[in-house]
Amino acid sequence: MNSAPQSPQPVIVFDDVSIAFDDKVVLKNLSFTLYHGQTKVLFGVAGTGKTLILKLAMGLLKPDSGRITVLGEDVTAMRERDLFALRRKIGMVFQESALFDSLNVEDNVGFRLLEEHVAAAEMSERVREALRFVELEHTVKLAPSELSGGMRRRVAIARAIIANPALLLYDSPTAGLDPVTSTTIIELLVKQRDAYQVSALMVTHRLQDAFVMATHAYDAAQGKMVLVPRERNWDSRTSFLVLRDGEKIFEGSAEEIANSEDAYIREYLTP
Ligand SMILES: Nc1ncnc2c1ncn2[C@@H]1O[C@H](COP(=O)(O)OP(=O)(O)O)[C@@H](O)[C@H]1O
Ligand SMILES: [Mg+2]
Asked: pLDDT per position in the chain (271 positions), as tens?
């Protein structure tokens, strides 16, 4: 076994990526790298291309120029069939949660496994495991309409993690939720990051959520997330990227963004 120290593996690399729709440039020469086990938070006002970044990472769209590598594969050059295989390693939690109203929680969470014709007993076990992670085991037979907004979001997370993805993409996972419920969602994201070393991109409009994520770590012994004292260096596993008019104007740690003197970022950070 090779025991030499390893440098962190890049999980997503955007290399000089640009894309325009009609005449409107949405992303301009964007470069960033997400490393294994890290979460990168994407900030920016509505329409700056945050959701687009997630779609590009999944290969749903191709950029006009530049290269995007995901889990070691160049998604800008891949065929649809190979992209399909790659997407199976990615868990997605999209803005709308988009549960199937006609399916119960169990079938929503296990949907991917149904498609893959996984045997019923195995599916049932894995669905329960995923629901246990989000503490919703008791809801298997319920319809989405019987759940609260926060519970629906947790079901969406269970569905995203069912295949033990190497990478999670979250689009505003706490949008529309109250602060307390939002924190329970962020705790799940922190647990994925720290207990399973799952890499993630997270779009959020809620600064509070991003700072909670950056300043807390999951403590397995206590079974919950705990505050990391500031002097112990706020969590380097979470970094921030701010977009403005299609360009990256900031990338760095929670500490760095909190101390930024850039006028636009200061205004952005002011509640
Ligand atoms: N498939 C598409 N066709 C045309 N325009 C698009 C498409 N996808 C995104 N856009 C445009 O790109 C911009 C950024 O969109 P989006 O990534 O959804 O922003 P955000 O998630 O930051 O609010 C918007 O102006 C949107 O209209
Ligand atoms: Mg969006």
From this structure: 445 556 789 999 999 999 999 989 999 999 999 999 999 999 999 999 999 999 999 999 999 999 999 999 999 999 999 999 999 999 999 876 679 999 999 999 999 898 888 999 999 999 999 999 999 999 999 999 999 989 999 999 999 999 899 999 999 999 888 888 899 999 999 999 999 999 999 999 888 899 999 999 999 999 999 998 776 666 678 999 999 999 999 999 988 998 999 998 888 887 6
Residues facing 160 on adjacent strands: none
Instruction: Give dist(CA 167, CA 88) in Å, integer.
Output: 10
- Number of residues assigned to the chain: 271
66 in helix, strand or coil? strand
Contact by Cβ (8 Å): 43, 243: yes
Farthest CA pair distance, the chain: 57
CA–centroid distance, 48 to ligand 2, in Å, is: 8
First to last CA, the chain: 51
72 lines ligand 1 (CB under 6 A): no
Mutate to test the pocket of ligand 1, among 21, 202, 205, 241 (most ligand atoms within 8 A of CB): 21
Tokens 């990168």 sit at which residue?
40
Ligand closest to 171 (CA) is 2
- Which of 52, 169, 248 is the pocket-test mutation for ligand 1 (most atoms within 8 Å of CB)? 52
> What backbone torsions phi and psi does residue 19 show, to the nearest 5 degrees?
-150, 140
Angle, helix 179-196 to helix 207-215, in steps of 10 degrees: 40
* 201, two tokens: 């991109």
Do 28 and 18 contact (CB within 8 A), yes or no? yes
